[in-house]
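I am writing to request your help with a piece of structural work I have in hand. I set the record out below, with my sincere thanks for your time.
___
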Amino acid sequence: GVAQWTAQLAAVIALQRQAGRRTHLVAATTETEAELRAVVEAVAADRVLVVCLSAPPELVARRVAEREPDSWPGKPGLIEHARALASVIPGLPGVDLVISTVDRDAREVAAKIKDALAASAP
């Protein structure tokens, strides 16, 4: 469950801090406010920026359909679940910034996140 993998995340972050690292990028798909809160608590950082990468439901469904093998029996259910979550996740309490991935490559998305971090610096 969530408690198991967030405990593992907390342990990894703690080890990274012991090694002197102070900046962490954590990627997680959280479906509820409680899951998002659990991730933020596991990271236990003084400063956190929660970014949601978004796309319209049909585009998300198409991306999953193209990515997953047709032979996997769970594929139809995952496509429908992804379609539904595309509308839910951007509105979760605790999301600081929503960035659309429509017609943006990874570098453009990363630049937007970097700009947001700079703007939110104390």
User: Anything to note?
Assistant: The helical segments are 2-18, 33-43, 57-67, 75-88, 106-119. The longest strand covers residues 51-54. The mean pLDDT is 95.
